[in-house]
């Protein structure tokens, strides 16, 4: 029960049901998801350990709220980690991996076309888990997945933007094609282009809700 609740709350954070800085109250969570207090506290604890929630003294649990500068730093770390994994992936990958990635990419596109946005989110995570597992460096893979989840509360999910989603889908296939070849730089470049970067959108959100004076504008980049 706690694992299922953890997943539900995580997805609700990602999709903006609980924006950064939102206080989560045990009784309301219990009522909303029809769960016990024990399951609620276990889910809170798990999400705190994954840096999605934070315990605030005298306030309880809140969705983590990063400053814009912290967001920029997190995306810099993701750039380092994910390009490092690409550099350490032995190309060309096996046909089994290619087939698996193609199937996930197909299912991801179909889910988007059907408006199944939570399935799109889950399949996107699955695609990149298979992709980065190919670097065969377990600690690096765990770090990538940890930082991917850490930035979920600040990502701009734009599944209702057809141009954006077509670009994301195209980039998935570029990644697969690069992994089928032996050009390491081509694969690294495909990873770099696909790296999500919602820093600009988050800075604007932060300014409206908490600051009202955005500083240090940053260029917009695509997210996937």
List keywords for this structure.
globular, mainly alpha, 3-stranded antiparallel sheet, 2 domains, Four Helix Bundle (Hemerythrin (Met), subunit A), Arc Repressor Mutant, subunit A, 224 residues
What do these coordinates show?
The chain folds into two domains: 62 residues, Winged helix-like DNA-binding domain superfamily/Winged helix DNA-binding domain (Arc Repressor Mutant, subunit A), CATH 1.10.10; 144 residues, Up-down Bundle (Four Helix Bundle (Hemerythrin (Met), subunit A)). It is built from ten helices and three strands, in the order H-E-H-H-E-E-H-H-H-H-H-H-H. It starts with a helix and ends in a 13-residue tail after the last helix. The C terminus is likely disordered.
The CATH class label of the largest domain is Mainly Alpha
Helix content: 55-70%
Q: Could you say what the CATH topology of the largest domain is called?
A: Four Helix Bundle (Hemerythrin (Met), subunit A)
Termini separation: 30 Å
Briefly say what this structure is:
The chain is mainly α and about 220 residues long.
SSE layout:
Blueprint: H1 2-14, E1 23-24, H2 26-33, H3 37-49, E2 53-56, E3 60-63, H4 68-87, H5 95-113, H6 117-133, H7 138-150, H8 162-180, H9 184-194, H10 199-211
Helix pairs in contact: 1-3, 4-7, 4-9, 4-10, 5-6, 5-8, 8-9
